[in-house]
Write a structure and sequence with these properties.
This protein is α+β, with helices and mostly antiparallel strands. It has helices at about 15-35, 45-55, 60-65, 85-90, 135-155, 170-185, 190-200, 210-215, 230-245, 290, 305-315, 335-350, 365-375, 385-390, 410-420; strands at about 35-40, 45, 65-70, 75-80, 100-110, 125-130, 160-165, 250, 265-270, 280-285, 300-305, 325-335, 355-360, 375-385, 390-395, 405. The protein binds histidyl-adenosine monophosphate.
Length: about 425
């Protein structure tokens, strides 16, 4: 059998996994500061949730879902994203009956059958946030600001915030007609996907990655010119809230996002040195999603960040991750009795809160020293049978090389004082 994980699926090994832990911790702290609580969502859902939520004409639903039948004959799909599940959960548990807004964040793997490349995987991780129950444009700005706050916290710079409004269903009807009129003279030269999109949802054409099709997009009508008064006012307000706190942004009328549930505000944050997959995070408002999946109208807005892309960006931008890879101490034992005593002391030291280790492979003293180095131990404790008999041990500072002899029975207090 193959000893390889499926294509586009990665193991995250230590020490890299410490970067993942670090990002998650920073995100939890920032989101906590903005009063978002964690929601832990299922990894799979009924296929229909994504078909109706994300939209039948999107690439995700048309080509990228991991869908299978379970043993009960139900169609199940591994989640390609989190927003539809959040809305389903909000309806299922009637969270709308509670005091609003509802502010959630989530973290976990998502699954899309895409062509793997740098920054694009079939199993990837997202950190997402959703706010339900508020339609005030100030919350749109808050959500964007919070995402940027996290980037700043992670030391990420030189990104670009692109924003647009994709309007409401009324403005979009008008806009779709304008797009059909614009694309119709070149339709026959466009890709089969775009020809289908033309009939079903011409806004999706703007999202086509085919280079020939992209050539026909020059001069396409802009949604901004087709916004109704209410959408226009809301969009102006979102922009003015961003300006109020000096957040630079670029208006991008071509930004339609790859999911159908968006209404009004849509945004993406890009870092252009990531290559073709340069969007670190994307999101927007989705006021129609609740009804689309069979519930009620609920205003909602959120974003999701790709954790792999965050890591690639940080790797590119900072010299050293602020991660503590160190071990407080390593016990080097010489002799059978000393090794047994070390096991006991190790237990006490760890119980006292120290990060401590010893050797279990019967290594020589030199080998144990090497282990201590490999674990970046700040101190090593050298304990032989003779010392054990005299109730002494030697503490070596691994940076300076200084050694002192201490009373073995004071070891835990001594080490605690030194480390803390
Ligand atoms: P999305 O734009 O499909 O939006 O994905 C959000 C982010 O997930 C992307 O910007 C990217 O960083 C990462 N991502 C997406 N696909 C892949 C992949 N195949 N490999 C690696 N990273 C990937 C959503 O998923 C929406 N649910 C966001 C949202 C939340 N909108 C409102 N609320």
């Amino acid at each position: 059998m193959s000893m390889k994980a499926p294509r586009g699926v990665n193991d995250i090994l230590p020490p890299d996994s410490l970067k993942w832990q670090y990002i998650r911790k920073q995100a939890e702290e920032v989101f906590g500061q903005f009063n978002y609580d964690e929601i832990i969502l299922p990894i799979f859902e009924h296929t229909e949730l994504f078909q109706r939520g994300i939209g039948e004409t999107t690439d995700i639903v048309e080509k990228e879902m991991y869908t299978f039948e379970d043993k009960g004959g139900r169609s199940i799909t591994l989640r390609p994203e989190g927003t539809a599940s959040v809305m389903r959960s909000y309806m299922e548990h009637k969270i709308y009956g509670q005091t609003q807004p509802t502010k959630y964040f989530y973290y976990g793997p998502m699954f899309r059958y895409e062509r793997p490349q740098a920054g694009r995987f079939r199993q990837f991780y997202q950190i997402g946030v959703e706010v339900l129950g508020v339609d005030n444009p100030a919350i749109d700005a808050e959500v964007i600001i919070m995402g940027l706050h996290l980037l700043e916290r992670l030391g990420i710079k030189d990104y670009q915030l692109l924003i647009n409004s994709v309007g409401c269903p009324e403005c979009r009807n008008d806009y779709r007609e304008a797009l059909r009129e614009f694309f119709s003279p070149n339709l026959e030269q466009m890709c089969p996907d775009c020809q289908r999109r033309y009939e079903r949802n011409p806004m999706r054409i703007l999202d086509c990655k085919n280079s020939d099709c992209r050539g026909y997009m020059e001069g396409a009508p802009s949604i901004i010119d087709h916004l109704c008064e209410s959408c226009k006012t809301d969009f102006t307000k979102v922009c003015s809230y961003l300006e109020m706190v000096n957040i630079p942004y670029t208006l991008d009328p071509g930004l339609v996002r790859g999911l159908d549930y968006y209404t009004k505000t849509a945004f993406e944050v890009k870092y252009n040195k990531l290559g073709a997959q340069d969007t670190i995070f994307g999101g927007g408002r989705y006021d129609g999603l609740g009804r689309e999946i069979g519930g009620r109208d609920v205003p909602g807005i959120g974003f999701a960040m790709g954790v792999e892309r965050l890591i690639m960006t940080i790797d590119e931008q900072i010299e050293e991750w602020p991660i503590d890879y160190d071990t407080d101490l390593f016990i080097i034992s010489i002799g059978e009795k000393a090794t047994e005593a070390s096991f006991r002391y190790l237990y006490e030291l760890r119980k006292a809160g120290l990060k401590a280790a010893m050797d279990y492979l019967g290594r020589s003293v030199k080998g144990q020293m090497k282990m201590a180095d490999r674990l970046n131990a700040r101190y090593s404790i050298i304990l032989g049978d003779d010392e054990l008999a005299k109730d002494t041990a030697t503490i070596k500072d691994m940076q300076t090389g200084d050694q002192v002899e201490i009373k073995l029975s004071n070891l835990v207090t001594e080490m605690n004082n030194r480390v803390k």
